[in-house]
Amino acid sequence: MALKLKFTVLAIGLLLGACKSAPISFHTLTPTQPMTGRAGSEITIEGISVPPQVDRPQIVIRQGNSGLAILETEWWGASLSDELRSAMVDQLSNAGGPRKTSVRIDVQRFDSIPGQYGLIDVKWRLRQANTGDDALLACRSLLQTPSGPTIDDLVIAQQNNVKRLAALISQASAGSRGCPPAS
């Protein structure tokens, strides 16, 4: 009887050990380095939209020409749209020009390919407060940053894209004529 109990306990232990899953890693689009102090007013974010295929807590990467993979152990700290909003608020605080400005951000593509690049294709609309649509500036920016093979490398590439987008919006808000070129 004792031998049967030992085998049962061993079998249960093996089954429970087989059920162990990999730990979940969480990532953010907000970089660890705080933004340097800048003069100016804040640029308010009217809204952010992200394609539904990638607007989830799990990181989504492209596979091949037409595939997507949802990484069950690599997550954003929130849904992608909330992560992007948080990162843009961080980047755009005190980045505006002398007048109150607001921006609407519509992400067309958010591609992540480990070992190749992170890409954000975004339409954005900048508006001065209390001017209606007369002072409306509509732009489109395609930002791509090379990435290393790891998910951490890919997240850093996308953080860089967000920084560059915020810099373009800040530049346009400061009074430059027309849409600034994505460099």
Automatic annotation (TrEMBL):
InterPro entries: ABC_trans_aux
Entry keyword set: Signal
Pfam family, one: ABC_trans_aux
Signal peptide: 1-21
Domain ABC-type transport auxiliary lipoprotein component: 31-169
Key word Magnesium present: no
Protein name stated in the entry: ABC-type transport auxiliary lipoprotein component domain-containing protein
Provenance organism: Pseudomonas glycinae
